[in-house]
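so im writing up the methods section and need the Aspartate-semialdehyde dehydrogenase record in one place, dumping it here so i stop losing it
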Amino acid sequence: MSRRFDVAVLGADSVIGHALLELIAERRFPVGEISALALGAEQGASVDFAGTTLMLDDATAFDFTQAQLCFLASDDPRLAAQAERAADAGCVVIDAGGTLWRDPEIPRVVPEINAPALRGFQARGIVAAPDALVVPLALALAPLHRLAGIRRIAATAIVPVSDAGRLAFEDLARETVALLNARHYERRHFPQQIAFNLIGQIGPAGAGGATERERRVIDDLRALLDTPELAVGLTVVQGAVFYGYALAVEVQLAAAQDFDAIVQALRTAPGLELIDSLEAADCPSPVTDATSTEAVRLARLRPGSAADTVMFWLTADNVRRAAALNALASAEILVREHL
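--- predicted struct ---
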């Protein structure tokens, strides 16, 4: 019989937590006992797992010596503190929520790109994830980097409200209903109208004009591709969708390449689905093609503004693919090769 691992899920009541529990069951991860943990859960609160009901336990009172693996399914700093407590107890922590860990010894991993970095989990007992927006972008860029090297990236990313949490989600849902009924809605998260709108800046910008998230995505991308000097221009836009990333990207390669070689590199890249169709109806969108799916879809691949550039459109599920599956794929490698 293969070895099984007792697992704790911190933030099991979050959208990432729900997706993780679904994927653990669907992919038949070798789980023994599983504990669903949350902060301030109401008495009797529960989550579903593999056709059964798991009662939510208090994360602050849980004994992490009872688990070998712990998934962190939120970027809530209070849960991150519990994750550190789990690591101190000898439990291996895999982050799915994109917490910004300051310790340079904690590896940031996208398994399709830098799986060998998982060996570094032993330093702190924690495997970090990059900002979730980095995952689909890196999956598309890594094969181009291997093919020819990358000199510059320019991208506009449209992100869903689920990236920003429950209040943001409620703002879009309730403001949409209110406007359709000619009523006013007092927003609790967004500084301006989100329903039927795009917001061109998320949070305050720093001295250079970039927001905190834009800076973090750039830093994480450079680290993953091991290109500290890579030129990256990024604009993150808040979209009026609940789930799913969409990115318009232009890449300048280190040298011009035969276009067929570029197509082949992307077609055979792990984790990518290349869509060749030129029909508008086949172009993937966040709502129809990047919700409750594990596919990262790349479409509209074409030459860019110069001989050494290419352009494309990218979509991915921000919760299931970019966050939950990225963490679970890391865990699958850990239990198979390192634990």
